[in-house]
Amino acid sequence: MTYTLRDYQQISSDAAIRFFRSTSKKNGLLVVPTGAGKSLIIADIAARLDGNVLVFQPSREILAQNFAKLQSYGVIDCSIYSASFNRKEIRRITFATIGSVMANMEDFNHFKYVIVDEAHVTNPKEGMYKEFFECADRKILGLTATPYRLCSSRDMNGEPKCILKFLTRTRPRIFSEVIYQVDISTLLQRGYLAKLRYFDLTILPPENIKRNTTGMDFDEDDLKLQMQFVDLQTHLTNIVRRLQNTKDGKPRKGILVFTKFLEESEALCKAIPGCEMVSGETPKKERNRILKEFQQGKINVLTNCGVLTTGYDYPELDTVVLARPTMSLALYYQIVGRAIRPHPQKESAWIVDLAGNIQRFGHVEDLHLTENSPGLYAVSSYTNGRIKQLTNVFF
Prior knowledge:
- By secondary structure, the chain is an alpha/beta fold.
- It contains twelve helices and 19 strands.
């Protein structure tokens, strides 16, 4: 089929083409929100470039989704190179996973262009991406909705803290400049994303929970104790029941719950008739059945533990429940992003938070990327009545 790019998609694609054709040796970032059509932008960039293009995808699911969309746009000189697909085919445009490429590096020396989807997963200090980039003498373009990494640090008193570092400000770093970005608020105002309604029903204040030794997450033993102390499980069950029977009588299309531990998901399934769960332990066939029935409306409540934060594309989804705290803005954003895709039958999406995440990070549509001085990018939000910088500060 033919396709027409929205203006920001066209600007993104044009910026990428200029980036690859420029003489600069710096790696660049495109920052576009979840639901903005990143796969279409990647397809257009790859189709316009005049040489071999290697597109890294972070997971099997996202690779399959974006490869299928590329082909649907009429781009046929493309292939998949991934052991998880049992396919290792190289064509002009090759969608790949990093592990499969690293096992056969010499086969990719002729690729002129490299694109990394979900670029925030790259670690500049270690790992396969770092090794590949050091061996590949060519520019890298990254695409992400969350251009920051959660890093461990310590304050002046030596206490473990965490800090969100913007990708261009890490040391060492992979990406040096933002070549184009568009805010969520812009796309919301123009009707390209679903409107969001936030319900802060915090019963588990994160400031009461001890941090682990890295400062980057909560201590799991203390988190479990605090969950028991406030009886989070009963509260979660009551909230889900209320969402199933709203005051206006309009049923929610689908209720997706995010928990920290398997026990909470298992208990919710026992308490709510028809509720099902998926986790990293769910067999693939069973997981596919559950997700299909959830999207068909046969399952009204789906709870999950750490598996549906990225790559889960269900535009009709209209309710997300956060039954867990997180220190990661990227994770918070990805969870909220499951419901941000628009759908004709969705008036608005509800974000229900039981664990202080809205208080910490604010509304995702209030996230703004600014360049405070040349090359010094930062992300800020409007929360608790004030503008709050979220990146490159301790919290």
